[in-house]
Amino acid sequence: MPEYDLAFSPTASNEAGSYKLIELTPDLTSLIENAIKSDDDLRLAIKGQSNEDAVLCTADKTFGMRSVGLSNTILVVTPVPDNCSAEFAEDAVVIRDQLNEVIELIPTVAKLHKLSALIRDRQYGEGNEEEVEDQDGVVRFTYDEAKSEIQASDVELDKGLKDRRVLIINNELRPIAPDYLNRLLELILNLLVSLSMNHASASVEDLCSALADNYEVSRVVSTQIMSWFGEMADGKWRMDVDSIVKEAGLGILRNHRHEPIKKDQLLAQWKTQVGDTFESIVSLNLLAGNYIEEESQGMDETFLKYFPASALPVDPAARFSDLFLTRSKWKVEEISPFLSDIAVNSKERDKLLLKFCRAVTDPQGIRYTARAQYNG
Fold it and tell me: What angle do CA 98, 100, 102 make, to 5 degrees?
């Protein structure tokens, strides 16, 4: 075994705290090894403001970073720097830093919740489509800023913008008004019929031209909306029927945040809106995580109220508090859709249920109640 003279670097006191040791997950280890073998450009980014816990992002995943103390000190050593070689033996190594902790990486959901607050005043809808230059008090948030500031990988950010129906116009992020979006989707469905186009292979150019010429809809907007609700390739658009039908149902449900709607009434309006071609797709399962059933004493009818998971707190404790203040007992299939955006997978979701809920059995089956007492 080779032997070395060990000494402190002359700059060790200045370099103290300069090094961090990160424990890689198996997936990250494979990603780095494969990138080295294939000479690919691999980029890892650490994101977070001073008041946020840092995360590490790959191209498509986000990892929380947690400091874990070590029982033994680890020394960071290097060969002697060239400018200090005269001060040390030929076979010496120098101590550059001492580490007493390791940073553990934990897969986590992308932290997209800041987006809504940053862009809520820039809604895009009928009457405010155009830019107003140099408008006082207008705060614009760009796509480039989002990639830098939002704690999410690029793939997760793009998916988050799509799921939240956020347009990118001249690099600025602008959420589309729900009513305007539903109107545009209705126009697209009508155009498919009037232009005799198959929804599985519709001409992107013909749809965009019809929307621009007849309804003054910008091509930048129409193409992005089509990408949200289907796939575009070789000039053709393949519509995602489920996502279109879901959005139509949400458009009706959003009007019933305070005043519930009868289930049968919702389904009837929904089927009418999507038309005969797609009415067979209508199902409450498409709206999971966006409504709750109102308990009605002595009535056979079921009432639904708009209750979107996206409006709930992102902190798990606060999320469960809100859920149990809304309803004291939940079936697992009822509560699970309201946890999908705060749990990275079903395993983590089950951990949250064990931590914050108590399973009880009643005549209707197993229900979840709160472990803590939440007072309204």
Answer: 110
* Residue-wise DSSP of 136-203: TT----BHHHHHHHSBS-HHHHHHHHHHTTEEEETTEEEEBPHHHHHHHHHHHHHHHHHTT--TTSEE
Pair 76, 96: CB distance under 8 Å:
yes
| Averaged pLDDT, 43-68 | 93
Over residues 183-239, the pLDDT tens digits come to 999 999 999 999 999 999 999 999 999 999 999 999 999 999 999 999 999 999 999
| DSSP structure string for 314-330 | SSHHHHHHHHHHH-S-B
In three-state secondary structure terms, 126 is coil
Largest CA distance in the chain: 92
Which pLDDT tens digit goes with each residue over 129-182?
Answer: 655 444 556 679 999 999 999 999 999 999 999 999 999 999 999 999 999 999
CB 303 within 8 A of CB 262: yes
- Residues 369 and 324: beta-carbon distance below 8 Å: yes
- Averaged over 314-331, what is the pLDDT? 94
If residue 96 lies in a helix (H) or strand (E), which one and from where to where?
Answer: strand 92-107
- For residue 160, count other CB atoms closer than 10 A to its CB: 19
CA 195 to chain centre: 36
Q: Write the Ramachandran bin of 7: left for phi over 0, alpha for psi from -120 to 50, otherwise beta.
A: beta
Residues 189 and 275: their CA atoms lie apart, in Å, by 9
